[in-house]
Amino acid sequence: MLEDKQLIQLYKAGNHEAVHILIERYKSSLYKFCYHLVLNNHDADDLFQDTWVKAIKLFYSYEDSNQFKAWLFKITLNTYRDRYRKAKRWLNRIKTVFVTEEHENEIAEVEGTDRTVEEQIVDKELKDSLKDAVNKLNDTLRIPIMLFYFKELSYENIADILEIPVGTVKSRLNAGKAKLREIMEVKEIG
Amino acid sequence: MDNERLEQLLSKIYSCEVHPSDKLIQRTKSESSRTRNFDRLVGIAVLMNLGVFVGFLLLIIFSDYSIIIKGLLFILFSSVLNIIALLLLVYKEKIAVFFSQSYFLEDISKTQGGLL
């Protein structure tokens, strides 16, 4: 199997299909990142496509020392920062709030386990309220949490994507989690 | 909520798989081809423009016209070039679509060989 760097070299040399392989290779992880950034399918589709268009234009400045996935996520984040701000995000969230793929996945997940129905419902409610709490955080705390819990990126990768030191990544993660615990405690009391 | 439970729930939230549709992947692939074709076209257009401009500039400089006519010709010619460049910029999407659908570029992509 060809490595990412080799594919980029091939693309630079004029083989356009190399980029199709990269799109196939990273479609799931990149789309997941886009979806969690913008929180709806409409914008996730746009962001996914815009990221690739931008990446193709930047391939010529890509350095082999970069990890391709982190480089791609950095482009996604910059595109998101440039174009997908709160207003659009909320507008489309209203449109897709009832039917989302994620919701369908959750239903399948609940149906497929051996736990009691009560446990599953409580778990789902907790998950939903935590998801709401995460989405209420500002991007400074939300994005490091998101990147960290994808379980695919190291602290160094996250620091590289966010262009901040590793120590700051860790402190933002802790601050984010503290804030989440605080929100969840208020909800539990309420 | 304790830390362990929070971590567990966060992992669950972000482990949930969300897949792009096949339609989106196809659209992205064709968009990537269009981007490449468009960039190539812009490169060719810039080079052609530059070549014609330099050629005409030399022609004006070495012609027998008076300096006023040379100046007027220069203004006229650079205006025409700028109008063409602006039109290309305005209709860039349509031009890119036209060229990405044309037989000529499809033929080129076929001869590039298949990696997939």
Report what the structure shows.
The complex is a heterodimer of chains A (190) and B (116). Helix content of chain A is 79%, strand content 0%. With 190 residues, chain A is mainly α. The relative contact order of chain A is 0.09. With 116 residues, chain B is mostly helical. Helices cover 83% and strands 0% of the residues of chain B. The chains are: A mainly alpha (190), B mainly alpha (116).
Keywords, separated by commas or semicolons:
heterodimer; A: mainly alpha; 79% helix; elongated; B: mainly alpha
Would you summarize the structure shown here?
The complex is a heterodimer of chains A (about 190) and B (about 120). Chain A has about 190 residues and is mainly α. Chain A has helices spanning about 5-10, 15-40, 40-60, 70-85, 85-95, 100-110, 115-135, 140-150, 155-160, 165-190.
Q: Give the CA-CA distance, first to last residue of chain A.
A: 54 Å
Counting DSSP E segments of at least 2 residues, the number of strands of chain A comes to 0
Fraction of helical residues of chain B: over 70%
User: What percent of residues of chain A adopt helix (DSSP H or I)?
Assistant: over 70%
Structure annotation, total helices of chain A: 10
Strand percentage of chain A: under 5%
- The best one-word shape of chain B is elongated
Largest sheet of chain B: none
From the structure provided, what is the oligomeric state, counting identical versus distinct chains?
heterodimer
Secondary structure blueprint with pairings:
The complex is a heterodimer of chains A (190) and B (116).
Chain A: H1 4-12, H2 17-38, H3 41-58, H4 68-83, H5 86-96, H6 101-111, H7 117-136, H8 139-149, H9 155-162, H10 166-189
Helix pairs in contact in A: 1-2, 2-3, 2-4, 3-4, 4-9, 7-10, 8-10, 9-10
Chain B: H1 3-15, H2 22-61, H3 67-90, H4 92-101, H5 103-111
Helix pairs in contact in B: 2-3, 2-4
